[in-house]
């Protein structure tokens, strides 16, 4: 079975996929996935960038607050009306044999999937996992939102919290699915997520 390995020598996640070809010695095929940045950590820590927003951009965000309240926030669903990760995964509360049968069935379905599928899934999961911390905190600090309490009724703040909750569900589902598949090296993935969350990010779209 092919196993994807994610290296964290730098902050960028890089896949190293050992593929056995008959009786030949496995070879390694690197596939880069940019998780955060390839800059050395020391360089990042030396930079101190705030999130000021040009007046014209801030004006646009402010002008859209009522529109967001009227047309975006009504689309948000409460937790009891959203799908949850456990609904799409093997049920661990059932008898052990039944649970293991579902896990084996999941592994059987993933066994034939190309490696490239897992490169995409892992890259997505890394981003989803870091979103509630790194991405949420960064966007929350921009001038258009600037939620200092973490529970502001500002429509953009409300949307951001709901979006974060939704993306967190995606990450939980992907993490468990990949873990049960046995096709990826979860330890290396976890180290990559640790690096991404610990280093943080500079969000330039709102500047």
* Total count of domains: 1
| Rg result | 21 Å
Distance between the termini: 46 Å
Query: What helical percentage do the residues reach?
Result: 40-55%
Secondary structure tally, helices: 7
- Biggest sheet, strands in spatial order? 1-2-3
Largest sheet: 3 strands, antiparallel
Mean pLDDT: 78
Family: Belongs to the fatty acid desaturase type 2 family.
Protein name: Stearoyl-[acyl-carrier-protein] 9-desaturase 6, chloroplastic
Cofactor: Fe(2+)
Keywords: Fatty acid biosynthesis, Fatty acid metabolism, Iron, Lipid biosynthesis, Lipid metabolism, Metal-binding, Oxidoreductase, Transit peptide
Key structural traits:
207 residues, three-stranded antiparallel β-sheet, single chain, mainly alpha
Question: How would you concisely characterize the structure shown here?
Answer:
The chain is mainly α and 207 residues long. The protein has seven helices and three strands; from the N terminus they run βββααααααα.
